[in-house]
Structure to design on (186 residues):
């Protein structure tokens, strides 16, 4: 949480980004509100893009805590361990979806993930069956070449989000055939 908070405060203090992103009323008291927001749910009462994103991140981590039974601080720490670029781009609905979404699946551990997902995945581009959940190897031709669609590419659609509680990690993958067949039966 410290690293994230430092990035937010740095952006608010530097005021070198788009003016709409930072708050003209930012002061030392705001730092305290930000630091305590996760525990007290109180803020300074102002709205700016940096603080709104910070509150969204904390609120989303708390949503994960409620749904998964894992401390929101542990969730946030895991996200921060994985973050290697600007927080404003890293945190978003696609990469930290609501747990109750239709294409979100939670597993206790990796073994359960492997058992329930199997080894066949539906490529969103060619609709072929890939044995790799991240890179299409279906062999289907699309636009005159063998499909090589990536789940982590620029265009991300029609994917599943899997979260493994023991690892405190989530990831976007091609939709597992086995999981979707079971979902359709119920």
């Amino acid at each position: 949480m410290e690293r994230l908070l430092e990035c937010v405060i740095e952006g608010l203090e530097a005021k070198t980004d788009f003016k709409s992103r930072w708050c003209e009323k930012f002061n030392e008291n705001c730092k305290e509100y930000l630091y305590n927001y996760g525990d007290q749910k109180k803020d300074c009462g102002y709205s700016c893009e940096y603080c709104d994103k910070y509150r969204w991140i904390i609120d989303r981590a708390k949503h994960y805590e409620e749904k998964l039974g894992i401390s929101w601080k542990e969730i946030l720490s895991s996200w921060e361990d994985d973050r290697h670029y600007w927080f404003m781009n890293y945190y978003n609905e696609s990469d930290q979806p609501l747990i109750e979404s239709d294409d979100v699946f939670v597993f206790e551990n990796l073994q359960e993930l492997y058992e329930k997902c199997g080894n066949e995945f539906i490529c969103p581009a060619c609709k072929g069956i890939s044995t790799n959940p991240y890179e299409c190897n279906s062999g289907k031709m699309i636009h005159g070449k063998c499909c090589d669609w990536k789940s982590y590419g620029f265009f991300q659609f029609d994917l599943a989000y899997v979260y493994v509680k023991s690892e405190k990690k989530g990831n976007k993958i091609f939709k597992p055939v086995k999981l979707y067949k079971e979902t359709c039966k119920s």
